[in-house]
Amino acid sequence: RLAVTSFLCQPWSNRAKSYAVIGFSAGAHLTAEWGTDNKGFASYGCEAPKALALCYAPIDLHGFENASDNRFLDSVCGGAGRDSLDDFCINQHVWEQYPPTYLWQCADDDIVSPDNYEKMVDALDAAGVHHEGVMYSEGGHALMKPHAPETDYWCMSVIEFLKDYLD
C-alpha cells in the first residue's frame, strides 16, 4: 500500500494529475479505499484519481468476520484488528469527492458476496457520485465459472467508462 501511495503522490509527473485506478478482488478493495474520506488520496495530500474501476470488490468487510481463515482481513486491514473494521468498510466512507466509479461483479460469486456491489452502489448514490456498472448473472469469482460470452467484454465496458475521464 505504501509503495503505491508513494508512486501516486509523486510531484514529478504531470501524468499523476490524470490517472485512474483499477483493482480486482482484494486489490479492488484497496482501489476503492483510495477514494474514501478516511484512508484515501486526500489523507495523503495526493491528487484525486479521475476514476476508479472496481472488479468484484469486497466493500463491506463485516461479511468476512466469520471466515475460518483471517488472512484476508489481516492483510486488508493491515493487522489493525476487528475493533477498527468499520474504518475499512468502503461503503461507510464514500463522500462527495469520491471519484467516478465503474464496478462489476457476478451474481453467483461465492467468494465476495454480490451484496457488496449493491452496498457500493447505494453508497455512491447517497454521496451523489457518478457510477456505472453491471452485475453479470453468472461467472463466479474472477469469471472462474461458466458464463455468457458477452461477460468476457467487461474490459471494453471499463475502457469506455474511463474514456470520459482520462485525457
Question: Which terms would index this structure?
Answer:
single chain, Rossmann fold, four-stranded parallel beta sheet
Write the layout of secondary structure elements.
Blueprint: H1 2-8, E1 20-24, H2 26-33, E2 51-55, H3 71-76, E3 101-106, H4 115-127, E4 131-136, H5 154-163
Parallel strand pairs: 1-2, 2-3, 3-4
What count of structural domains? 1
Quaternary assembly = single chain
What is the level-2 CATH architecture name? 3-Layer(aba) Sandwich
Report, as a whole number of angstroms, the end-to-end distance: 26 Å
Strand content: 5-15%
Task: Characterise this structure.
The protein is of the alpha/beta class and 167 residues long. The protein has one domain: 3-Layer(aba) Sandwich (Rossmann fold), CATH 3.40.50. The protein has helices at residues 2-8, 26-33, 71-76, 115-127, 154-163, and strands spanning 20-24, 51-55, 101-106, 131-136. The protein has a four-stranded parallel sheet, sandwiched between helices.
